[in-house]
Amino acid sequence: MTATPQSATLYGGTSNRRITVRDIARAKHNGERWPMLTAYDALTARVFDRAGIPVLLVGDSAAMVVYGHDSTVPVTVDDLVPLSAAVARSTTRSMVVSDLPFGSYHGSTGQALDSAARFMKEGGAHAVKLEGGHRVAPQVEALVGAGVPVMGHLGLTPQSVHTLGGYRVQGRGDEGSALLADARELERAGAFAVVLECVPAPLAAEITAQLTIPTIGIGAGARTDAQVLVWQDMAGLSPNVAKFVKTYANLAETLSEAVTEFAEEVVAGRFPDEEHSYS
Q1: Which of 111, 137, 140, 115 is nearest to 125 (CA)?
Q2: Which Pfam families does the entry link to (predicted)?
């Protein structure tokens, strides 16, 4: 389905108001594809917002790219709430979605509500994301019932990486029908969108066709409704990236060159020069 001019309200839209779940739903209806990126700080979030990225995810991937852990498991609500607040304060149009980290929603619907409330009230988030299918449907239903928009996450769910046996493709063979059932359960529970990570492209396309809510792919082929990447992966800052990551810049090299030039000028006494000094 081809998007009409009126449907171009996400990427490339002219409105300066915040993107909402209604805009996301309308994009699905109109066949409009859209991009999503992670964000963890004010400066980069502002750049992405001005570039027109409609949804920014304050991901628990901050565990690795901000805090230096080797998985998403160690990061806490206390770690992520300030990052969410920084992103929300520095943007005017992007919808800010915050990850509920491992251990912050699994115990009960009450725990999920308490965690989501912190992200909404202290972190300025407009929605939250959690991982899992039928096992977290009660939490999704409770959150939505309390007025919290929820984005789901299926396939490779990094918080469950130890149970899954490592970072590998999910949904092959007989696993596909279970993943589709989980996607339908999230939709039934009230999720407004669902991330599909490391899922075979044909399965992701089937799920996208069968759901009325948008799918967001990351390593799930080109036929999802949207695509998301960790911005440091996309921009060439991460030393190791997955097969599904396309690198659009080499900021690691650019930054290294700038740092080297600065250091060499300091050592040689060329910086600061007269132009960068006060008289």
Answers
A1: 115
A2: Pantoate_transf
Q: Which of 217, 185, 213, 215 is nearest to 200 (CA)?
A: 217
Give the global pTM. Answer: 0.94
Do 129 and 259 fall within a single domain?
A: no
Q: At 190, give phi and psi (nearest 5°).
A: 115, 5
Q: What is the mean pLDDT of each run of 10 residues along the chain (279 residues)?
A: 50 88 97 98 98 98 97 96 98 98 97 98 98 97 98 88 63 90 98 97 97 98 98 96 95 98 98 97
Q: Is 243 annotated as a binding residue?
A: no
Look at residue 263 and tell me if it is in a domain: yes
Query: Are both 41 and 147 inside the same structural domain?
Result: yes
Only one residue has tokens 């700038």, namely: 258
User: Which domain covers residue 260, as residue numbers?
Assistant: 251-278
Instruction: Count how many domains the chain has.
Output: 2
Handedness of CA 254, 95, 228, 51 (dihedral sign): negative
Q: Quick one: how far is CA 269 from the chain centroid?
A: 44
Q: Is 131 annotated as a binding residue?
A: yes
Please indicate, yes or no, if residue 257 is contained in any of the structural domains: yes
CA 93 to chain centre: 16
Please tell me whether 129 is known to bind a ligand: yes
Residues with catalytic roles: 197
Residue 1's pLDDT is what? 39
Strands (E), 48-135: 55-58, 95-99, 127-129
> Token pair for residue 205?
């396309």
- CA dihedral (138, 139, 143, 149) in degrees, to 10, reads -100
